[in-house]
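Hello,

I think I submitted the zinc ion job twice by accident. Can you confirm which output corresponds to this input? Input:
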Amino acid sequence: MDKTACTRCGREMPLKRLKEVVHEEGRSRIRRLVCSICLDQIMNESSRVRGVVGTQKAAAAHIDHGVGSGERQSLGQRG
Ligand SMILES: [Zn+2]
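Support: Only one job matched these inputs. Its output is below.
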């Protein structure tokens, strides 16, 4: 009944088995529900992960993309 899909790979599974992931894009905070497999991949790609309190889950993973990445370079090209 309460089947939900992972927002990354689209696999359907109960909400209980999805993990909440939080990250910032510019000034806005993005929340996504992903399966444990996707969470592993996201954590591997990110430079830092810390636990935070989620809105849909009791615990969420906050992803930091770190500094010195491509995002900074694209900002610099504006000037
Ligand atoms: Zn997934």
